[in-house]
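Quick bug: Acyltransferase output formatted oddly.
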Amino acid sequence: MTFRVSAVQYHLHTISSFGEFAAECEHYIKTAGEYGAEFILFPEFLTTQLMSIGDEQGKALTIEDLPQFTDRYRELFAGYAQKYAVHIIGGTHVLRRNGKLYNVAHLFYPDGRIAEQAKLHITPAEVEGWNMGAGEGLEVFQTDKGTIAMLTCYDIEFPEIVRMARAKGADVIFCPSCTDDRHGFHRVRYTSHARAVENQVYVVLTGTVGSLPTVDLMRANFGQAAVITPNDIPFPPQGLLAEGEINSDMIITADLDLELLYRVRERGSVTTWRDRRTDLYTDWT
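Here's what came back:
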């Protein structure tokens, strides 16, 4: 099974309307479609761009205002997924549930279905700046191209949760991210490579670029997309199928071959999943 993925290095900048946001998202979807992408990944906190629209006094909206866009966000991306016959991981959007805010990744299927995965590990900045809550459970998602998981940014830095996703059958981890400096970016990037090696999975990663000068906690972004593989023959020696130019407004595209994963798991130079010492530590299966 081989399928094509695209990851969007989404350029955040001040906008004036939801329609402008919608047009920009469609531009990236159309572009990925021109390359034949079957899955399109947008970055974490994609919809914070809507906060830059501002209120009637011209002041930027706050994180508490963002959930008011939920219905329009879901309708928009569900419509695009159906219109262009693609799976879209629409980055993350902030939802309000039981009086608490959650940072939630969304998978939009070509047939109109919508699946959600709340971010499970919340950074100190998200807690202190936005009072963000943590998700309660991990799901994997069946698609006609295979089983995937959505783990957002900080989540990828925790090996246990990726082990759980792999044990549940995920072959591809889609990781929408948003980092503001080199330190944060490299934490997510390096651990994405580690998770791919440990679990013999693909990791598709992307982040925000640009800036939202009027939006708290979104004034700086440092991002780069990558399609990451295990480090073994027949994959590239550096474990990279594709990567973008740092902080550029662009899309990267690559083909994921699941048969190569299965072959490496069975008879690779190393067989990290099979060789786990579950007599010494938890067997997540």
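Actually, after a second look the formatting is fine. The CA atoms of residues 38 and 136 lie 29 Å apart. Closing.
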